[in-house]
Amino acid sequence: MGDMEFNSMLIDVAKHLTADDIHRMKFMCKDIVKKRDMEKVETALDLFTELQSREKLTANNTSFLKQLLVKCEKLNAISVIEQFGNIRLNHPVGNREVPMDVSPGVQHQAFQQAQPVVPQPVHQSHNGVASRREDPIVQQQLNALRPEFNFLMKNLSREWRFYLRALGMSDSDVDIVETDYPRSLRDQIYQALVMWAKENKERATKTELIRALKDGSVERFDLASKLEKGNY
């Protein structure tokens, strides 16, 4: 499978991306692609070309692109890449050519492995972006921590970025939330906490929320005390 098939796959991926998706992906790549070069990027294919020139995207390594698509919750685009990877691994079975000396059982197994990847069911989030149905563990954590999230949303102020860093969130993730919810600090705080809980699952606990409030970069002992006492 050569460059033509790989480039064709990238074209299919680009079809699933909106202008907003491209804007977000460019933002996440600003430490990889120089500003001067990024200013020339207008389409998804332009961005893919820049990533290829920096060896961040190859036919054998699409992991970075998939990370970008996960952040943008582009499941259909991810399935296109996964399908390409499956066919590549099973080539020439990917072209439905099975050597005659291969046993019927192996032929059947290889043919099934080369079938298109079926995307998982998706639902629309509150802001209209399609996302995976929540893992039961994640949903349970979100339900359990909703009172604490509401409390922090209403009471954190200028130190909120330091607080999220103390929880272990990256600046790039926080930047994405700010871009998605530019008009409301409360929305930014709440959605960032939701993102944190989804990424940490069982490790997202009230104890961890309290610990971060006591971090030296935050020092909101007043809020930590209220959470510990349940006064919220």
Word description of this protein:
Strand 1 (122-124) and strand 2 form a beta hairpin. Mean pLDDT is 80; it is low at 92-132. The protein is mostly helical and 232 residues long. It has helices at residues 3-15, 19-28, 35-38, 44-53, 63-71, 75-89, 104-113, 136-155, 160-167, 171-180, 185-200, 206-213, 221-229; strands spanning 122-124, 130-132. The chain has a two-stranded antiparallel ribbon with strand order 1-2. Helix 8 (136-155) packs antiparallel against helix 11 (185-200). The protein has 13 helices and two strands, in the order H-H-H-H-H-H-H-E-E-H-H-H-H-H-H. The radius of gyration is 22 Å and the shape is elongated. It is 61% helix and 3% strand. The longest helix is centred in the middle third of the chain and has 20 residues, at 136-155.
Can you lay out the helices and strands and say which pair or pack?
Layout: H1 3-15, H2 19-28, H3 35-38, H4 44-53, H5 63-71, H6 75-89, H7 104-113, E1 122-124, E2 130-132, H8 136-155, H9 160-167, H10 171-180, H11 185-200, H12 206-213, H13 221-229
